[in-house]
Amino acid sequence: MTKKVQFLITITKKRSNLNLEKEKIQKQIDATMELFASRPAKCFHRKKKELLRNKITFNFSSGKITVAKKLT
Q1: Could you tell me the residue ranges of all domains in the chain?
Q2: Which superkingdom does the taxonomy of this entry point to (predicted)?
């Protein structure tokens, strides 16, 4: 039985130049989702503390992005 995985992506904007970093941000999000998808949840406890909560936060000069894994 496979579990459906959803991602909750939160973007916090500090300044309006977030669009300039869109490509960079998208790459980070894609890489993170790939990482989450390729590993079962049990593997995360051995990784960083952030991964333990199934959440990764990226800080950019123009804001912050949180990619969280939700198991449904």
Answers
A1: 5-13+30-71
A2: Eukaryota
